[in-house]
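Supplementary Methods, section 5.1.

A reviewer requested that the exact input to the structure prediction be made available. We therefore reproduce it here, unchanged from the version used in the analyses.
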Amino acid sequence: MNPILSQDKYAKKLIELMILASQQGASDLHLGVGKKPILRLDGKLIAINKEEIITPEIIAGFVSMLLNEQQQKYLMENKEIDFAFSLEDKVRFRINIFFQKGYLAIALRLIPTVIKTVEELHLPPILHAIANYNQGFFLAVGPAGQGKTTTLAAIVDEINHNRMDHIITIEDPIEYVYMPDRSMISQREVGEDTLTFNNALKSSLRQDPDVIMIGEMRDPESMAIALTAAETGHLVFSTLHTNSASQTIDRIIDSFDSAAQSQVRSQLATSLIGIVSQRLVPRINGGRIPVCEILIMNTAARNLIRENKIYQIDLVIETGLKEGMISLNRSLVDLIRKREISMETAELYSNNPSELRNLLS
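The structure derived from this sequence is encoded token-by-token as follows.
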């Protein structure tokens, strides 16, 4: 656990900045030498002009307040460290401390203490159906900072409130903290509760889980274990940094050597239940709203994976509207018609602007 910040000048200033970031509704707080503290608000970086420029002494003070002796040693040896930090159980952060140009820097991602529902996040209602599955593999994908973990938290917490399951999460670090309701929840943090990510994933299969939430699939080994878990009667959730459902399937298959790819295609075709690919786009009235591409697996999609025709997955999504599927462009059009986002914003985020204009007309 992280030490409680002592009330010296560095601690007081860091607490002020953390509270300010929370009050302003920022997603991130950046602290680096030679710069003023910077907030990310609605996707844009904004300097806190009233604050002084951060010096090496100030950043070192912040780091010494955040890290215990063991963590400081790890930082010096590895040049970066990830961990979670709670400020009086009111504000929670995922923090990365790293070196740049020889100086320390800190990136703090704010994690809401309350897990929002699918409706509160403005996500498509079809995601409720995912919480009703007892077995299978579901992925939330997209670039960093686009709400993947938040989406999975909403689905997992829905299970927590409605089913008597054993939910295991494996994270590095733990982000959302779940309050057990009908389910029993075991949250494991790499470095604190387990030595390695893959050790925890392997062990989870011997801990009588019903649901396994993997913070991120990092390598072929974690992907293989996740697929096996889904095949053997578990509901598995995870994230990937990919841009679409079809790219996600390709990425998983291509992560394995050619001799194993046929088996992986077969496993995916059998166990995959869906993929949500999402971005957070600026709203007309301020703030951001998710735009989603959703693949819900059906017979056609499973056959395309088996036959290695992944490039045709987009067509399945386009024609699967009645099954709850939605393409990125249709999601954008829906937000334009609801006057949530502008046409200019939609075109900026669309992967096919001409198709977007055709759908609108």
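The two ends are 56 Å apart (CA to CA). These observations are discussed further in the main text.
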